[in-house]
Specification:
Length: 260
Amino acid sequence: MICIAIANQKGGVGKTTTAINVGTALAATGQRVLLIDLDPQGNASTGLGIGRSDRDRSTYDLLLTDAELEDVAIATKVPRLDIVPATQDLSGAEIELIEFDARTHRLDAAIGRHVAGRWDVVLIDCPPSLGLLTINAMVAAHALLVPLQCEFFALEGLSQLLTTVERIRSRFNPGLSILGVALTMYDRRNRLTDQVSDDVRAVLGKVVFDTVIPRNVRLSEAPSHGVPALIYDYRCAGSEAYIALAREVIDRLPKLKKAA
Ligand SMILES: Nc1ncnc2c1ncn2[C@@H]1O[C@H](COP(=O)(O)OP(=O)(O)OP(=O)(O)O)[C@@H](O)[C@H]1O
Ligand SMILES: [Mg+2]
Protein backbone atom coordinates (compact mmCIF):
# COMPACT_ATOMS: atom_id res chain seq x y z
CA MET A 1 0.00 0.00 0.00
CA ILE A 2 1.32 3.39 -1.00
CA CYS A 3 0.46 6.46 1.04
CA ILE A 4 0.51 9.90 -0.60
CA ALA A 5 -0.14 13.15 1.27
CA ILE A 6 -1.53 16.03 -0.75
CA ALA A 7 -0.05 19.04 0.96
CA ASN A 8 0.61 22.74 0.65
CA GLN A 9 0.16 25.10 3.56
CA LYS A 10 -1.23 27.73 1.21
CA GLY A 11 -5.01 27.80 1.23
CA GLY A 12 -7.15 27.26 -1.83
CA VAL A 13 -4.47 25.96 -4.19
CA GLY A 14 -6.41 22.86 -5.25
CA LYS A 15 -5.40 20.22 -2.68
CA THR A 16 -8.91 18.89 -2.13
CA THR A 17 -9.90 19.08 -5.79
CA THR A 18 -6.74 17.12 -6.62
CA ALA A 19 -7.35 14.56 -3.86
CA ILE A 20 -10.92 13.89 -5.01
CA ASN A 21 -10.23 13.72 -8.73
CA VAL A 22 -6.89 11.92 -8.69
CA GLY A 23 -8.47 9.50 -6.22
CA THR A 24 -11.40 8.94 -8.56
CA ALA A 25 -9.14 8.48 -11.59
CA LEU A 26 -6.95 5.99 -9.73
CA ALA A 27 -10.05 4.07 -8.64
CA ALA A 28 -11.25 4.02 -12.24
CA THR A 29 -8.06 2.24 -13.25
CA GLY A 30 -8.79 -0.54 -10.76
CA GLN A 31 -6.78 0.66 -7.76
CA ARG A 32 -8.54 0.42 -4.41
CA VAL A 33 -8.21 3.90 -2.98
CA LEU A 34 -8.75 5.32 0.50
CA LEU A 35 -8.98 9.08 0.89
CA ILE A 36 -8.32 10.33 4.43
CA ASP A 37 -9.85 13.76 4.97
CA LEU A 38 -7.40 15.42 7.36
CA ASP A 39 -8.90 18.91 7.12
CA PRO A 40 -11.42 20.11 9.75
CA GLN A 41 -13.17 21.97 6.91
CA GLY A 42 -14.19 18.52 5.64
CA ASN A 43 -14.24 19.65 2.01
CA ALA A 44 -13.17 16.30 0.60
CA SER A 45 -15.97 14.61 2.53
CA THR A 46 -18.58 17.11 1.32
CA GLY A 47 -17.22 17.01 -2.22
CA LEU A 48 -17.71 13.25 -2.25
CA GLY A 49 -21.30 13.54 -1.06
CA ILE A 50 -20.78 12.45 2.55
CA GLY A 51 -23.34 14.47 4.54
CA ARG A 52 -22.64 15.66 8.07
CA SER A 53 -25.03 13.03 9.46
CA ASP A 54 -23.02 10.26 7.76
CA ARG A 55 -19.88 11.18 9.64
CA ASP A 56 -20.38 9.18 12.87
CA ARG A 57 -16.78 8.10 12.88
CA SER A 58 -14.13 10.34 11.47
CA THR A 59 -10.46 11.19 11.18
CA TYR A 60 -10.76 12.61 14.69
CA ASP A 61 -11.46 9.09 16.05
CA LEU A 62 -8.55 7.72 14.07
CA LEU A 63 -6.14 10.22 15.61
CA LEU A 64 -7.46 10.53 19.16
CA THR A 65 -8.80 7.04 19.93
CA ASP A 66 -7.81 3.48 19.15
CA ALA A 67 -10.29 3.32 16.26
CA GLU A 68 -9.08 1.20 13.37
CA LEU A 69 -8.93 2.40 9.77
CA GLU A 70 -11.43 -0.31 8.84
CA ASP A 71 -13.94 1.04 11.40
CA VAL A 72 -13.84 4.65 10.23
CA ALA A 73 -13.62 4.23 6.46
CA ILE A 74 -16.87 4.40 4.52
CA ALA A 75 -17.69 3.82 0.87
CA THR A 76 -18.34 6.71 -1.49
CA LYS A 77 -20.52 6.64 -4.61
CA VAL A 78 -17.36 6.04 -6.59
CA PRO A 79 -16.59 2.32 -6.90
CA ARG A 80 -13.31 1.36 -5.17
CA LEU A 81 -13.01 4.80 -3.52
CA ASP A 82 -13.50 4.88 0.27
CA ILE A 83 -13.13 7.83 2.60
CA VAL A 84 -12.43 8.56 6.23
CA PRO A 85 -14.55 11.70 6.61
CA ALA A 86 -13.61 14.75 8.67
CA THR A 87 -15.72 16.71 11.11
CA GLN A 88 -15.32 20.03 12.90
CA ASP A 89 -13.94 18.14 15.95
CA LEU A 90 -10.72 17.80 14.05
CA SER A 91 -10.00 21.49 14.58
CA GLY A 92 -9.43 20.70 18.26
CA ALA A 93 -7.25 17.70 17.52
CA GLU A 94 -4.00 19.67 17.19
CA ILE A 95 -4.32 20.76 20.81
CA GLU A 96 -5.66 17.44 22.11
CA LEU A 97 -2.84 15.55 20.40
CA ILE A 98 -0.32 17.34 22.58
CA GLU A 99 -1.35 14.97 25.39
CA PHE A 100 0.09 12.02 23.48
CA ASP A 101 3.77 11.16 23.53
CA ALA A 102 3.66 9.86 19.99
CA ARG A 103 1.61 12.82 18.76
CA THR A 104 3.42 13.05 15.44
CA HIS A 105 2.88 9.34 14.73
CA ARG A 106 -0.83 8.85 15.46
CA LEU A 107 -1.87 8.64 11.82
CA ASP A 108 1.15 6.54 10.87
CA ALA A 109 0.30 4.08 13.66
CA ALA A 110 -3.35 3.87 12.61
CA ILE A 111 -2.39 3.19 9.00
CA GLY A 112 0.25 0.68 10.12
CA ARG A 113 -2.30 -1.24 12.21
CA HIS A 114 -4.71 -1.81 9.35
CA VAL A 115 -5.22 -5.18 7.76
CA ALA A 116 -2.97 -5.23 4.73
CA GLY A 117 -4.49 -5.72 1.32
CA ARG A 118 -7.71 -3.75 1.52
CA TRP A 119 -6.41 -0.62 -0.24
CA ASP A 120 -3.68 -0.09 -2.81
CA VAL A 121 -3.34 3.67 -2.43
CA VAL A 122 -4.07 5.97 0.50
CA LEU A 123 -4.42 9.70 -0.29
CA ILE A 124 -4.37 12.20 2.57
CA ASP A 125 -6.02 15.58 1.98
CA CYS A 126 -4.10 17.95 4.27
CA PRO A 127 -5.35 21.20 5.78
CA PRO A 128 -3.75 24.52 4.75
CA SER A 129 -1.14 24.64 7.52
CA LEU A 130 2.09 23.00 8.57
CA GLY A 131 0.71 22.13 12.00
CA LEU A 132 0.48 18.79 13.75
CA LEU A 133 -2.17 17.42 11.38
CA THR A 134 0.00 17.94 8.31
CA ILE A 135 3.03 16.66 10.22
CA ASN A 136 1.08 13.46 11.00
CA ALA A 137 0.41 13.12 7.26
CA MET A 138 4.08 13.65 6.38
CA VAL A 139 5.18 11.07 8.95
CA ALA A 140 2.68 8.53 7.59
CA ALA A 141 3.27 9.15 3.87
CA HIS A 142 5.73 7.64 1.43
CA ALA A 143 5.52 10.77 -0.69
CA LEU A 144 3.93 14.18 -1.13
CA LEU A 145 1.91 15.47 -4.03
CA VAL A 146 2.11 19.26 -3.94
CA PRO A 147 -0.49 21.30 -5.83
CA LEU A 148 0.89 24.71 -6.74
CA GLN A 149 -1.40 27.43 -7.99
CA CYS A 150 -0.21 29.29 -11.09
CA GLU A 151 -0.03 32.74 -9.57
CA PHE A 152 2.63 35.35 -9.03
CA PHE A 153 3.62 34.17 -5.55
CA ALA A 154 3.47 30.46 -6.39
CA LEU A 155 6.99 29.71 -5.21
CA GLU A 156 6.70 31.76 -2.09
CA GLY A 157 5.89 29.39 0.74
CA LEU A 158 7.25 26.41 -1.12
CA SER A 159 10.63 26.78 0.56
CA GLN A 160 8.89 26.66 3.93
CA LEU A 161 7.13 23.46 2.87
CA LEU A 162 10.41 21.93 1.70
CA THR A 163 12.14 22.90 4.95
CA THR A 164 9.40 21.08 6.85
CA VAL A 165 9.83 18.03 4.60
CA GLU A 166 13.57 18.09 5.32
CA ARG A 167 12.92 18.22 9.07
CA ILE A 168 10.45 15.33 8.88
CA ARG A 169 12.97 13.33 6.86
CA SER A 170 15.79 13.82 9.31
CA ARG A 171 13.73 13.21 12.43
CA PHE A 172 10.93 10.78 11.60
CA ASN A 173 10.58 9.58 8.04
CA PRO A 174 13.84 9.35 6.05
CA GLY A 175 12.07 7.81 3.05
CA LEU A 176 9.65 10.71 2.52
CA SER A 177 9.88 11.83 -1.09
CA ILE A 178 8.20 14.35 -3.34
CA LEU A 179 6.07 12.44 -5.82
CA GLY A 180 5.51 15.59 -7.81
CA VAL A 181 4.35 19.17 -8.00
CA ALA A 182 1.12 19.76 -9.91
CA LEU A 183 0.45 23.20 -11.39
CA THR A 184 -3.20 24.09 -10.85
CA MET A 185 -5.69 26.74 -11.98
CA TYR A 186 -3.73 27.49 -15.10
CA ASP A 187 -5.40 30.22 -17.13
CA ARG A 188 -4.53 30.18 -20.81
CA ARG A 189 -5.79 33.72 -21.33
CA ASN A 190 -3.48 35.13 -18.71
CA ARG A 191 0.12 35.51 -19.86
CA LEU A 192 1.32 35.75 -16.30
CA THR A 193 0.39 32.13 -15.62
CA ASP A 194 2.62 31.04 -18.52
CA GLN A 195 5.46 32.98 -17.01
CA VAL A 196 4.80 31.44 -13.60
CA SER A 197 4.66 27.92 -14.98
CA ASP A 198 7.98 28.48 -16.86
CA ASP A 199 9.61 29.86 -13.72
CA VAL A 200 8.39 26.98 -11.57
CA ARG A 201 9.72 24.44 -14.07
CA ALA A 202 13.05 26.26 -14.28
CA VAL A 203 13.43 26.17 -10.49
CA LEU A 204 12.00 22.73 -9.67
CA GLY A 205 12.76 20.78 -12.85
CA LYS A 206 11.42 17.29 -13.45
CA VAL A 207 9.57 16.99 -10.17
CA VAL A 208 6.86 19.16 -11.79
CA PHE A 209 4.26 17.01 -13.57
CA ASP A 210 3.90 17.66 -17.31
CA THR A 211 0.15 17.86 -16.88
CA VAL A 212 -1.17 21.28 -15.94
CA ILE A 213 -4.64 21.57 -14.39
CA PRO A 214 -6.54 24.40 -16.11
CA ARG A 215 -8.85 26.80 -14.38
CA ASN A 216 -12.17 25.18 -15.17
CA VAL A 217 -15.55 26.10 -13.78
CA ARG A 218 -16.79 22.49 -13.90
CA LEU A 219 -14.14 21.56 -11.34
CA SER A 220 -15.52 24.14 -8.94
CA GLU A 221 -19.18 23.24 -9.58
CA ALA A 222 -18.84 19.52 -8.97
CA PRO A 223 -18.39 19.62 -5.15
CA SER A 224 -21.79 21.26 -4.64
CA HIS A 225 -23.30 18.21 -6.35
CA GLY A 226 -21.36 15.88 -4.05
CA VAL A 227 -19.57 14.12 -6.88
CA PRO A 228 -16.06 14.30 -8.35
CA ALA A 229 -15.73 16.44 -11.49
CA LEU A 230 -14.74 13.21 -13.21
CA ILE A 231 -18.30 11.97 -12.71
CA TYR A 232 -20.09 15.33 -12.93
CA ASP A 233 -18.62 15.99 -16.39
CA TYR A 234 -15.92 13.57 -17.40
CA ARG A 235 -15.28 15.31 -20.68
CA CYS A 236 -14.59 18.82 -19.38
CA ALA A 237 -11.04 20.15 -19.66
CA GLY A 238 -10.55 19.84 -15.90
CA SER A 239 -11.52 16.16 -15.82
CA GLU A 240 -9.32 15.37 -18.79
CA ALA A 241 -6.41 17.06 -17.06
CA TYR A 242 -6.95 15.09 -13.86
CA ILE A 243 -7.06 11.83 -15.82
CA ALA A 244 -3.72 12.78 -17.39
CA LEU A 245 -2.30 13.72 -14.00
CA ALA A 246 -3.42 10.40 -12.50
CA ARG A 247 -1.63 8.63 -15.36
CA GLU A 248 1.58 10.41 -14.43
CA VAL A 249 1.02 9.53 -10.79
CA ILE A 250 0.65 5.86 -11.75
CA ASP A 251 3.87 6.06 -13.78
CA ARG A 252 5.71 7.35 -10.72
CA LEU A 253 4.31 4.76 -8.28
CA PRO A 254 6.74 1.88 -8.99
CA LYS A 255 9.69 3.97 -7.76
CA LEU A 256 7.82 4.62 -4.53
CA LYS A 257 6.92 0.97 -4.12
CA LYS A 258 10.56 0.02 -4.42
CA ALA A 259 11.53 2.50 -1.74
CA ALA A 260 8.59 1.64 0.54
N1 LIG B 1 -8.64 24.03 -11.58
C1 LIG B 1 -9.62 24.70 -10.98
N2 LIG B 1 -10.42 25.52 -11.69
C2 LIG B 1 -11.41 26.22 -11.09
N3 LIG B 1 -11.69 26.17 -9.78
C3 LIG B 1 -10.91 25.36 -9.01
C4 LIG B 1 -9.86 24.58 -9.57
N4 LIG B 1 -9.28 23.87 -8.57
C5 LIG B 1 -9.93 24.18 -7.45
N5 LIG B 1 -10.92 25.08 -7.70
C6 LIG B 1 -11.82 25.71 -6.74
O1 LIG B 1 -11.02 26.57 -5.94
C7 LIG B 1 -11.36 26.46 -4.58
C8 LIG B 1 -10.18 25.93 -3.78
O2 LIG B 1 -9.87 24.63 -4.24
P1 LIG B 1 -9.59 23.44 -3.22
O3 LIG B 1 -10.64 23.39 -2.18
O4 LIG B 1 -9.34 22.23 -4.01
O5 LIG B 1 -8.23 23.97 -2.60
P2 LIG B 1 -7.53 23.53 -1.24
O6 LIG B 1 -6.08 23.74 -1.44
O7 LIG B 1 -7.98 22.18 -0.83
O8 LIG B 1 -8.13 24.61 -0.22
P3 LIG B 1 -7.92 24.60 1.38
O9 LIG B 1 -6.52 25.06 1.56
O10 LIG B 1 -8.94 25.57 1.89
O11 LIG B 1 -8.14 23.20 1.84
C9 LIG B 1 -12.56 25.55 -4.52
O12 LIG B 1 -13.73 26.32 -4.57
C10 LIG B 1 -12.44 24.73 -5.79
O13 LIG B 1 -13.69 24.26 -6.26
MG1 LIG C 1 -8.81 21.53 0.98
